Amino acid sequence: MLKKLFPYIKLYRHYFIMVVFGIILVLVALGASIFLLSLSGWFLSATAFVGVAGLYTFNYMLPAAGVRGAAIIRTAARYAERLVNHNTTFKILSYLRTDAFKRILPFSTRQMQYYQKADLLNRFIADIDHLDHLYLRLFMPIVSGLLMTILIYFAVSYFDQTIASCIAIILLMTILVVPIIFYQAGKVIGAKIAEQKSEYRQKLVSYLQGQAELILFNATNRYRTELDEIEQQWLTNQQKQSTLLSISSALILLIIGAMTLLIIFLAADGIANYQQPIIALFIFVGLSCTEILAPIPGAFLFLGQVLTSADRMNDLMQQKPDISFPKIGVKADFNCGEISFNDVSFTYPNQPLSVFEKVNFTIKNGEHIALIGKTGCGKSTLLSLITRAWPIEKGQILLNQQDITQFDESTLRNLMAVIPQTISIFSDTLRNNLLIANPRLPDKKLIEVLASVELDKLTNSEAGLDLWLGEGGRALSGGEKRRIGIARALLHNAPFILMDEPTESLDSQTEQQILAIITKCYTDKTLIMVTHRLTQHSWFDRIYLMENGQLSIAKNKTV
Ligand SMILES: Nc1ncnc2c1ncn2[C@@H]1O[C@H](COP(=O)(O)OP(=O)(O)OP(=O)(O)O)[C@@H](O)[C@H]1O
Fold it and tell me: What is the pTM of this model?
């Protein structure tokens, strides 16, 4: 169990001072609370005991001031404790989220494909949130409970050693034994809740994203029923967890009640030795221990949930990236674009058949290449090997005679502009959608490039480059999205251009327009275009056919 939680417990060392400060404040708040109740109990008993005669002999002022002081300290310490401890938790959670995000950023496509987007989101939000129980619900109550037990022991033993020992033993046993019982009782339920929450969120996201298809195929109700079933199971488990929580509170009350009876019994035994109001003080110390014990069983009830979340985060965070880039790579020549594949073989993980076997070809600077082949023959895969989305199994890919593994990530990205099959439009302005390709360009350049891809009508509106695109913005047609992709590639201004079916699913007129833009804009770049329909074949220097894991030249301009 500790092994699973260790990576998260380790994080507390970054916030050591705040954690210690938090513990001190909890102790002050608990101490003030116990002192307040015990003193009030004693004060009431003492005043009743002295009766009217006490009006002249009893010092009312000092205990009353003590009660007031303890009440003020308790309120202030409780407030400060909440402030400090919640602040520490937020800091730890944000550190954890940032750290988790940094770790998954370098993951390869292979590693990312095992996680659905909704699952990742759930790990980042719900699982990390569960880990906050570790500090506020587990660590804090146990540590403060143990320290408070020691303090109470020394305070009460000033009056009576036996009663002090009795309180300390009962508190200690409760802090050490009760959590184990409730951890065992809540382990399975907690794990199920964490899993069901994740499953529900993933299904809900798919349900919302696939609304159009579900409605068209009349499958909304079926899907909704599955969703409701998971929700029902989740609620049932939450109900069981709440029942256990109530039982734990009842058990603590029972323990406190039994302890108070024992204190009365022990105090009554030595009644001749005490001033009578002191007995009330003992009783109220016992009763006020509820504050120490109340959060403990609940904390362990949630431990199963915390452990499942820790498992899910460990699974993500302990992976090493498949693809690593050197921190300082070799220098690249940005004025040349020559690419070579030397005996490159590649098989997708856990697949029986390889996609390529010993593929060899060289594309010279400025050449334009079309790559054709049947669906599923591996055209897109070939492009993704050049971008290092997947690690190659055997062979070598060279860009300007340098192995691609020797470039640092930023240099490799600056060497190539990629136009993928699906162009992502971000929910942002037209300007920011273009600047992802090159953040330092002035508006003038953006407008110029938009004009060259025949998208100037977008900037003709009043908003200009501030036109909002993506969700909630102006919906772009398929052809317009492709043009945005081409504009980004132009702004990136790299020697290699990789295009994955840039005219797929466009009507023939738009296709002609897009191809005309490509042939006009990329004349002096080295270009590889994956395509199914080859309409501008005279423009290409060579056409490669991919078949059975091999590349062959289907047409050569010079032949
Ligand atoms: N992530 C993956 N894991 C396992 N196999 C994959 C993965 N991606 C693609 N494949 C398989 O590898 C083969 C080549 O896929 P690829 O997408 O490169 O083909 P393609 O020629 O580009 O197809 P299309 O013309 O339909 O886009 C296919 O059989 C595909 O099922």
Answer: 0.68
